[in-house]
Amino acid sequence: MMIRFAAPALTALALLAGPAQAVDLSQMTDSERSAFRAEVRAFLMENPEVILEAVQQLEQRQAEAEAQADFDLVKTNAEAIFNDGYSWVGGNPEGDITLVEFMDYRCGYCRKAVPEVESLLKSDGNIRFIVKEFPILGEASTISSRFAVATKQVAGDAAYAQVHDALLELQGDLSDVVLGRLAEGLGLDADAILARMDSDEVTEVLAKTRALAQTLNISGTPTFVLGDEMLRGYLPADQLEMIVAEKRAAD
Questions:
Q1: Local structure of 93: helix, strand or coil
Q2: Measured between alpha carbons, how far is residue 18 from residues 13, 22, 156 in Å?
Q3: Is 116 left (phi over 0), alpha (psi -120 to 50) or beta?
Q4: HSE-CB of 106 using CA atoms within 13 angstroms
Q5: Beta strands at 229-232 and 88-91: parallel, antiparallel or unpaired
Q6: Tens digits of per-residue pLDDT, 75-97?
Q7: Is 181 left (phi over 0), alpha (psi -120 to 50) or beta?
Q8: In this predicted model, what pLDDT tens digit does every residue of 111-154 receive, in sequence order?
Q9: Residue 53: CA atoms inside 13 Å, Cβ hemisphere, count?
Q10: By the 8 A CB rule, do 127 and 92 touch?
Q11: Residue 90's beta-bridge partner residues?
Q12: Is there a contact between 114 and 166 (Cβ–Cβ < 8 Å)?
């Protein structure tokens, strides 16, 4: 496409001495500046799609910059993300790729993600899955996470997995009575778990996970880390499967 400019506009455009040099309106005469602005406006009015293209280009560059920033954060904090020593590990502990989920028991999208993650782990069979307790939706969320972490510390990984699933399905207000009945229903020592909930050990786990989330700029749940990539928000199983396949193909 050839764009024809009036003579004053050509004079203004001639100020662009190099491909990366910006137009300096302060170096133009008033007539050149006025002509240049008029030509730009006329061009945009005749070709408004250029504005949309520019916005799309900006959004693409921003997305690429954010993805690179997330990649760098995951790489820098890999040990804390994948091997903290206290988060529950499920799926295939010897899997060739790791999926980490920062979750909140009262988060609707975390609950919606449960069958998607379960489908992925079951159909694949070679994914290591880590749960990061990240309560951000109020007191009920914190109580739930304290109960889950206390269960893991008192009764081990298998008990934690049961409690984790039960808390994701639990409706209504939480109380010691409700949690005690939940534990007893799973054959666990309710008194020991309830006594552990407010311990320094449980507090430390939640504080470390919160600090890690802040370092990773995570403010919502669910947030996943899949291999070296951060995935912010709910994703269906087929999209997770596609990303897993891409990660394996790239290795």
A1: coil
A2: 11, 9, 66
A3: alpha
A4: 14
A5: unpaired
A6: 999 999 999 999 999 999 999 99
A7: alpha
A8: 999 999 999 999 999 999 999 999 999 999 999 999 999 999 99
A9: 5
A10: yes
A11: 129
A12: no
Token pair recorded at residue 181:
């009945």
Q: How far apart are CA 235 and CA 220, in angstroms?
A: 14
Q: Tokens 């470390």 correspond to what residue?
A: 208
Q: What H or E segment, with its residue span, contains residue 129?
A: strand 127-133
Whether the CB-CB separation of 99 and 91 falls below 8 Å is answered with yes
User: How far apart are the C-alpha atoms of 249 and 109, rounded to whole Å?
Assistant: 29
Rounded Cα–Cα distance for residues 209 and 92 (Å): 22
What would the two tokens of residue 147 be?
């109960």
Beta bridge partners of 132: 102
| Per-residue tokens: 238 | 């087929």
Give me the helices (H) in the chain, please.
7-13, 30-46, 49-76, 78-82, 108-124, 139-155, 157-169, 176-185, 190-196, 200-215, 237-250
User: What angle is formed at CA 168 by the lines to CA 247 and CA 232, rounded to 5 degrees?
Assistant: 35
What's the length of the chain? 251
- Distance of CA 59 to CAs 54, 69, 239, Å? 9, 15, 22
